[in-house]
Every structure is written in structure tokens, then in C-alpha cells.
Write a structure and sequence with these properties.
CATH superfamily of the domain at 60-184: Peptide methionine sulfoxide reductase
CATH class of the domain at 60-184: Mainly Beta
Bound molecules: zinc ion
Structural class: alpha+beta
Order of helices and strands: HHHEEEEEEEEE
Number of helices: 3
Strand order of the largest sheet: 3-4-8-7-6-5
CATH topology of the domain at 60-184: Metal Binding Protein, Guanine Nucleotide Exchange Factor, Chain A
CATH architecture of the domain at 60-184: Beta Complex
Number of strands: 9
Oligomer: single chain
Strand content: 15-25%
Shape: globular
């Protein structure tokens, strides 16, 4: 019995191979077009924030490409979790109406509506424009227990958040000017080429 089964195996293999070729040919000949495999990675699900922005985390390669365009101070702050000296940031005394965006990927992060003078020497806000645009993590560096704030899309270090802000949120997002760009109200939002939100949403 074993001998017989073994002997019939090549025939089975041949038959299945011919069947596969037949299926392949019929697929190709249906409209005469051979289509390339879909490029998009089906495992990477697009994430959209409540404000309608694409907050899908960028690949490390894409972050590196965008970060290479930063000036040295913005690179140090966003990519090395640096802190700019107090009272030196360009956006500290900015009182214009507008939106503060990520210096790396242009995601809108904070609004002038939520900016306040904390007296600390760093731009301070009571909250982000959308909670899904930032991520907060416990940070125990420099002998302190703090909560680090980073961009949800490109993971750029932005600053820290403390629970000693004004009412009603009581939150104080203490940020580095170098980690953000300012877009005055009425200006078209800046969009880095790889990170524009889908326009059909
Ligand atoms: Zn970003």
C-alpha cells in the first residue's frame, strides 16, 4: 500500500501544478492585464484623529528623513529630548492667534486659545488641540518624575506636562519653542509631503 501511494505522488503533484497554471492563466487572460501586487501594507491601519488628521505613526525611516531637515536646536530638542534654555524660545512671547504645529511633521498640536503665561520661561498651554495628537509618557530622567509630551505621529519630544496649571483643566503643557512652528490664523496650514491628512475624509 505504501509503495502504491508513493508511486502516485508525482502524478498528484503534476496535476495540482497544472491546475495552478490553469488558474493563473485564466486570471491573466480575463482582461489581458497582469496587475501588480497592491503596494499598501494591509497590516498598517490608518489612524485619524477626532479633528480629522492622519495620526498614523510614521516609520523610523520617514522620521529620520524629516528630522534631517531641522535646524540643530530643533533636532536636539525633538530627537534627543533636549530642553531649550528658559526665556529664550522664539514662541514664548508670541500672542498672535493661530496654531502651533509639530516642527518635524506639521501635525497641529496646540492653539493660541489655550496658551497662557506660566512665568516659567517656556510656552505653556492648558491642553492640546486634540488629545490624539500627543502622547504622554512617564519620564524619570534627570532625577525627576515627570510626564513627557511627544507628537503622536512622529514621536518628536515636545516638553512635559504638569498638574499645576490654571482652572479648569489644571494642566500646564510646558513646551519647547524649538519643537514647534507657528501658523497664524488664516494662513494655509503647512503640510509636509508625507503627512498630509486625507482630503476625502
Ligand atoms: Zn510630529
Amino acid at each position: 500500500m505504501i509503495y502504491g501511494a508513493t508511486r502516485s505522488l508525482p502524478i498528484v503533484v503534476l496535476a495540482s501544478t497544472l491546475a495552478a497554471i490553469a488558474v493563473d492563466r485564466s486570471a491573466r487572460e480575463a482582461d489581458g492585464v497582469v496587475r501588480a501586487a497592491p503596494v499598501e501594507d494591509a497590516t498598517m491601519e490608518r489612524q485619524t484623529s477626532a479633528l480629522g488628521h492622519d495620526v498614523t505613526p510614521l516609520s523610523s525611516e520617514e522620521v529620520a528623513r524629516l528630522a534631517a531637515q531641522l535646524d540643530p536646536e530643533a533636532f536636539r530638542v525633538t530627537q534627543r529630548a533636549g530642553t531649550e534654555p528658559a526665556f529664550c524660545g522664539q514662541l514664548l512671547h508670541n500672542h498672535e492667534e493661530g496654531v502651533y504645529t509639530c516642527a518635524v511633521c506639521d501635525l497641529p498640536l496646540f492653539s493660541s486659545d489655550d496658551k497662557f503665561d506660566s512665568g516659567t520661561g517656556w510656552p505653556s498651554f492648558t491642553g492640546p488641540v486634540d488629545g490624539q495628537h500627543v502622547v504622554e509618557r512617564r519620564d524619570v530622567s534627570h532625577g525627576m518624575v515627570r510626564t513627557e509630551v511627544s507628537c503622536a505621529r512622529c514621536d518628536a519630544h515636545l516638553g512635559h506636562v504638569f498638574r499645576d496649571g490654571p482652572k479648569p483643566s489644571r494642566m500646564r503643557y510646558c513646551l519647547n519653542s524649538a519643537a514647534m512652528d507657528f501658523v497664524p490664523e488664516g494662513d494655509p496650514p503647512a503640510q509636509s509631503d508625507a503627512t498630509a491628512a486625507p482630503s476625502d475624509s
